[in-house]
Amino acid sequence: MTPVIELAGVSKAFGPVKVLTGVDFALYPGEVHALMGENGAGKSTMIRIASGDHRADEGEIRLDGEARRFRGPREAQEEGIAVVHQELLLFPSLSVAENIFLGHQPKTRRGFVDWGRMRREARELLDRLDCPQLDVDQRVAKLSVADRQRVEIARALSRKARVLIMDEPTAALAEADVQRLLDVIRRLREDGVAIVYVSHRMNEIFAIADRITVLRDGTSTGTYPVSEVTESSLVSMMVGRDIHQLFPKIEVERGKTRLEVRNLSRTGLVEDISFDLHAGEILGIAGLVGSGRTELAQTIFGVTPATSGEIKVDGSPRKIASVRDAIANGIAYVPEDRGLHGLVRPQPLRENVTMAILDRMTKFSVIDTGREQRMAKEAIDRFAIRARDARQRVGQLSGGNQQKVVLAKWLATDPKVLILDEPTRGIDIGAKTEIHRLMGELARKGIAILMISSELPEVLGMSDRILVMKEGRLSAVIDRKDATPDKVGAAMMRTRPEPAAAGAVR
Amino acid sequence: MKSRSFHVVGSLGQEILLVLVILALFAFVGWVNPRFVSENNLTSIFVGNAYIAVAAIGMSLVIISGNIDVSIGALIGVLAVISGLLVTNGYPIWFAWLAPLIIGSAINTLLGCLIAYARVPSIIATLAMLSILSGGLITFTGGQWISGLPSGYQLAQFRLLNIPSPVWFMIGMTIVAALLMRYTAFGRSVYAVGSNPEAARASGIGHASTVVKVFAIHGAIAGVAAVLFATQLQVIQSTTPVGLELVIITASVVGGVSILGGVGTVVGSTLAAILFAAIGSSLIFLNVSAYWLKAVQGVLILATVLADMARRRRTG
């Protein structure tokens, strides 16, 4: 049997950075082929090449055994290759049917949109996906995430997709919806659709995949039938090293209690969270996207102040009603999206470094620019920021260096508690390691660190303890020595909190 | 020290360019028609237009903070009439000079609150204010000009060291505003809020309070501009100057203030206002129809915004 689509020796570089090197990948009709690898391993680039979004520098793409070059995503779509993106690309103000057929609406003979046919065919597609309850005239804005995903899949099918690429489709789904999605995928497989399934979740992979390809640092470590691999063999293939080697964890004596959170709630976002955080401790927070991890951080930091509960810093209760209050009480928050929340990109590095402590930099409300310059220089040295000088605009720096500027900005506030939200997302391996090293150093200096991460290896590798969140609540607290991917993963999925986690955790 | 001076040039690119263009314009038109650079003409250029440069300072703050104000022309008209009515109705001259600052600031503080707290987009809030002010003005005055202004009221005709007072106001206020924007926490906050409101919020910088302050200052500056406008002639027109807001916004933008917020300086907007005044006058001296001024302004604004977009693409 010939593969529907095959990548042979594909390489791709962005500027000096090699993202893919000689990758081979073959996808057969009627198989679910899992694509695994750490963030930054090259999965998304590979998907983009297969779907015509990027062009390979070297190597060949073959469709049904014939070499093809896609000039753009449209050509790939015409060949029946469809991608269901992680961030669903739908139009909220249009109806379900309109979204499904956007760009290829059925037309009447006079060239107008054939609404009757469009709605009928949308209905058929949705029935095929086992969602008879989904109204084709509903506006997409009103749908749940799971339903939006179904619309997106229906859209792919409406283009007669033979190849369906799903990029972390379950990242934002509740357990019941995950099961329904897997059923849909099985049905599509029976219909002969070839499916590329990108996911970090082991249990899904073993439940659905026929074969698995693992990417590591831009190269393929091989393709295996699912029966030939185990969870631990997969992890070592992805990481290439033992987890504990990858994250050189510094053992730090646990100091006094820095942060005490008691029954903290913010209506609709987080509910009844209690935990302690000690000086020198790195407390990891794991959970699915939407489980309330970021919301918890923002509640502690005063972005969305708590509606009930108590926060104590160094033993005394503090009122945190705003970001200012949080900063004044020694809490710093390095946000998940540094472009959106972290930096002012057209401003120079030094002005970004002092942005969170402007009121401490002034005398008679005039900024001490000499001190500012010194602080920026120190930050450049201390964090090994690759910048021309302190006056370079931060927008011109690389992602890893931008992240270091954000870190520098928050460390300038001299925090007792440092909250890091996805501290290494989207930065290269080298900068990642530096940031991990830095976290260890900060912990040694007695800063209490709360680290939110979606990367299980990072959570397992860096944390002294792990809080697992689910649906706005704490679902488990796991000590470093007991933490396994299975245990944390299970707590992320669990519908009911374990009795042990229900009370305050000290 | 060397790298510091380099930095000043680097960050003042647009300003240096404007200075060169202004000098070139004076040199060229003065060469064609020497009367262009006569003291008389220079005085009339500056006295007649300094209020635009002054108003553009406040406008620059507003645009840097990520907002826009299209009601500024109407506000200047209203404040000028208020000043004139006060003085012709027997109030002391100092009071007639001071009242526009306070009233302007009050009106714009209200605008700022609408924008910052009620979250009305600034284009909508100020558009509404434009209608209210210009409609109110014409209803109230019936279009009659105010005359019979007492001598001693004509602030714009005063001189110090033989330099007309509007020039002093223009230069002095530009310097103060430039220092405020560059060396104070408030100035920093304006750039941060205009460039990335989310990041500013996450850094503990109050978005709403910064925007309200910007509008309050802008209103007070508009008051100064209104007094300079009202006191240059023996009469005060009681209609709002048509298209004044566009000239002021154009000066800010051509001066290097990014219409997307977060970027620019008040020095640039003042220079651009001077450039426009000089172009307007030079058209007369070159025997070109003065109606071309608007077209030239239009071309300049497009060129500046295109250059700004290109710069943004390059530097990210």
UniProtKB/TrEMBL annotation, chain A:
Ranges for domain ABC transporter: 5-242, 250-496
Cellular-component GO terms for this entry: plasma membrane
Record GO terms (molecular function): ATP binding; ATP hydrolysis activity
Keywords: ATP-binding, Cell membrane, Membrane, Nucleotide-binding, Repeat, Sugar transport, Translocase, Transport
Residues forming coiled coils: none
Keyword Transport: yes
Gene3D superfamilies in the cross-refs: P-loop containing nucleotide triphosphate hydrolases
Compartments (UniProt record): Cell membrane
Membrane topology qualifier: Peripheral membrane protein
SMART domains: AAA (SM00382)
Pfam families linked: ABC_tran
Family assignment from sequence similarity: Belongs to the ABC transporter superfamily.
Protein's name in the database: Ribose transport system ATP-binding protein/rhamnose transport system ATP-binding protein
High-level lineage: Bacteria, Pseudomonadati, Pseudomonadota, Alphaproteobacteria, Hyphomicrobiales
TrEMBL record, chain B:
Topological type in the membrane: Multi-pass membrane protein
Compartment(s) where it occurs, according to its Swiss-Prot or TrEMBL record: Cell membrane
Major subcellular location class: membrane
Keywords, comma-separated and alphabetical: Cell inner membrane, Cell membrane, Membrane, Transmembrane, Transmembrane helix, Transport
A Gene Ontology term for the protein's cellular component: plasma membrane
InterPro entries (alphabetical): ABC_transp_permease (IPR001851)
One protein family per Pfam: BPD_transp_2
Transmembrane segments: 12-32, 44-63, 70-88, 94-117, 124-146, 166-185, 211-230, 242-260, 267-285
CDD domains: TM_PBP1_transp_AraH_like (cd06579)
PANTHER family: ABC TRANSPORTER PERMEASE PROTEIN YPHD-RELATED-RELATED, AUTOINDUCER 2 IMPORT SYSTEM PERMEASE PROTEIN LSRC
Role description: Part of the ABC transporter complex LsrABCD involved in autoinducer 2 (AI-2) import. Probably responsible for the translocation of the substrate across the membrane.
Quaternary structure, from the entry: The complex is composed of two ATP-binding proteins (LsrA), two transmembrane proteins (LsrC and LsrD) and a solute-binding protein (LsrB).
Protein name: Autoinducer 2 import system permease protein LsrC
